[in-house]
Design goal:
With 351 residues, this protein is an all-alpha fold. The chain starts with a helix and ends in a 27-residue tail after the last helix.
Length: 351
């Protein structure tokens, strides 16, 4: 179940419109690893944290004698696999915790959504940490699989079968569980399956709840809503920095080839609204990343920002024209942008 959950979460990592499923798989990983950590304190022979820690000092000698017959025989985990188990548990904790924090800060969703307002400056750092820890996790997983295969080839080990039935050939050694340990094991399995079933039928729950607030453009700035909205959709002000909005308002008489001039008082109110709600004043993911990737040039349009180009680089000009219309019409895929929201989970690709 842990392998399935980790693989599922990883497969969905780049599918932004399936972010909810990615997060739910991550929470399932967190539950499973939490039970494994508790299991290590229940006195189960060979699976306890104490047994694993006791073997760590033997790791250098184990690898030194790896291809020798004198490397010794171990009940349960050998020193290398003991180190792996402790490392993989630590990595899974780091990956799931950083993922939950990132989901809260970046998407303003889930149990850590309250951190978005005050900790958006940490967004890029936590995102990098989450990606790095995930990469390290994958390296550990691949090294473990490689080790199992090598052990099978060179030693004819029955370790894979032993993972399934708990038995090892050529030994009378066995692990007998107490009734309490049996009960905990059943609770572990039932809890994981129940949570997976609940997630499948109820993907929108407290762990994925979106706390983002819709923007009522007409109420916040009637002038912006009526003035800009008379020709095109009203774009959320956080999608451009102050300098871009300022230059745009200075050149309304040549607004992308059209005269969009407004009465002076109305234009001033629009300018103030755009400046007060520009990317510099937002904690949303798009705003933070637009500023981070801004570069030296001041973008004249949202589609000219480095971040926009990066996110849409896989869509060719021909695809845009055939499937999406014009680049500036975000409504084709971002169905909630009319309400000022650009959430990953709400992206609806047109095929």
């Amino acid at each position: 179940m842990l392998i399935t959950s980790v693989v599922t979460s990883y497969v969905l990592i780049d599918k932004e419109n399936q972010l909810t499923e990615h997060v739910l798989a991550g929470h399932l990983v967190a539950l499973l690893i939490s039970f494994r950590i508790i299991w290590g304190f229940l006195g189960v022979k060979c699976s306890g944290h104490e047994d694993l820690l006791r073997k760590i000092p033997q790791v250098p000698m184990y690898f030194k004698n790896y291809f020798n017959k004198n490397r010794g025989s171990y009940m349960g985990h050998n020193p290398a696999s003991a180190l792996y188990v402790l490392s993989i548990m630590s990595l899974l904790i780091l990956v799931t915790l950083s993922g939950s924090l990132l989901y809260g800060i970046q998407e303003n969703s889930g149990i850590f959504a309250g951190l978005n307002e005050n900790y958006s400056d940490w967004m890029l750092l936590i995102e990098s940490f989450h990606k790095i820890s995930t990469t390290v996790l994958l390296v550990f997983i691949l090294s473990h699989v490689t080790g199992v295969i090598l052990n099978l080839i060179f030693n004819g080990s029955d370790v894979i079968l032993g993972m399934i039935n708990g038995k090892r050939r050529g030994t009378d050694f066995d692990v007998v569980l107490t009734i309490q340990q049996h009960i905990f094991g059943v609770v572990w399995i039932v809890s994981a399956l129940s949570l997976a079933t609940y997630f499948y039928y109820n993907p929108d729950n407290i762990l994925t709840e979106d706390k983002s607030i819709e923007i009522d453009f007409r109420r916040e700035s009637y002038e912006t809503s009526s003035g800009c909205g008379s020709c095109h959709m009203v774009y959320p002000a956080y999608l451009l920095p102050k300098q871009s909005w300022n230059e745009m308002m200075d050149n309304l008489e040549n607004h992308f080839g059209k005269d969009a001039s407004r009465p002076e008082e109305e234009a001033q109110l629009i300018r103030e609204y755009l400046m007060n709600n520009a990317a510099e004043h937002s904690t949303k993911e798009a705003a933070v990343k637009i500023l981070d990737r801004l570069g030296e040039k001041t973008p004249a349009a949202i589609t000219e920002t480095n971040y926009w180009r990066e996110k849409h680089k896989d869509i060719t000009k021909e695809q845009f024209e055939a499937d999406y219309g014009i680049k500036s019409d975000c409504r084709t895929c971002h169905k909630t942008i009319r309400d000022g929201l650009i959430q990953d989970k709400d992206i609806k690709f047109k095929y």
